[in-house]
């Protein structure tokens, strides 16, 4: 994969053409047992379908067939990085997403407030998606927890999400998560994954134990789980590889953090899709690559709300003409992974993708959904292959070889 990035860096050229990559988080689904249709197949999407008719379409594996990706690997693939070679932990992404200044040696973890029953079993991994205001108040209480030899900093992110940053000498991210990522289980004890991980594992377990004591009377947020322990990574820069002036428009902090790690500028935006489109319009002349992230398709899928996910797809469909009106030379529409509402979580299923531009070779696909895109001209590719195809269609890659 390093060879691919090196090749792309060699072939990439600066041009005025513009690429918009619209990522519908968790867009892929599987058929509902009552209808035999996925969320995309159920939704009324006249604009996405019209775009598919003038695009080249296909299916993409975020990592590789059969592997269920997290959000970070899913997006790294879309940016052209091999997720098996380049890894960024969730904790770092959440921290950078809220502009927390990580120091060298810090270990950051993504935290979820959760609901525990009387036996300490997780019954809701998201504590009913409590408000950011409630999380902020609870995070302030947890900041007072004393852990021997380690400073612990807790900050609210959004809704039930927080970051927990461990700061001190001799810390490492080579430890396991406490989050089983399933209901019906107890939070797990953090274990070391390397010889030098004992201090970090002990600090994490000590913090969690004291945090549970603080939270015990704060139902539904009477529990806490941590995952994605990580330290700052060192990745080749997105703009240096592709010779692009790139920006990210995302309402959720984690995706801003991911874009920041690879070197994109972060455009502040509001919480709605219309806010994001307005941010795109306002900054369209300043950049030539735009990563636009749409979260509701993933959140509704994780909550198992099939009809709500359908409605969120239809909401997104309504803004497609506004993006097309800007006249991007290449418009990519895809997802970072599948989140079937039937499964209430991420899955290994491939994701539909379409690429529209003046130099694309349109196929016979006339609908943007999983079943239709199976027959598209792009065929079945990995997510890390999407960016080179987008660059080529934007006339941003020189010829390889004599």
From TrEMBL:
Superkingdom: Bacteria
SUPFAM superfamilies: Alkaline phosphatase-like (SSF53649)
GO MF, one annotated term: phosphoglycerate mutase activity
Enzyme Commission identifier(s): 5.4.2.12
First-level EC class: isomerase
Pfam families from the UniProt entry: Metalloenzyme, PhosphMutase
Keywords: Glycolysis, Isomerase
Reaction catalysis annotation: (2R)-2-phosphoglycerate = (2R)-3-phosphoglycerate
Residues of the Metalloenzyme domain: 18-391
Pathway(s) it belongs to: Carbohydrate degradation
InterPro entries for the chain: Alkaline_phosphatase_core_sf (IPR017850), Metalloenzyme (IPR006124), Pglycerate_mutase_ApgM (IPR004456)
Keyword Isomerase in annotation: yes
NCBIfam families with a match to the protein in the record: apgM, PRK04135.1
Stated role: Catalyzes the interconversion of 2-phosphoglycerate and 3-phosphoglycerate.
Similarity comment text for this entry: Belongs to the BPG-independent phosphoglycerate mutase family. A-PGAM subfamily.
UniProt name for this protein: 2,3-bisphosphoglycerate-independent phosphoglycerate mutase
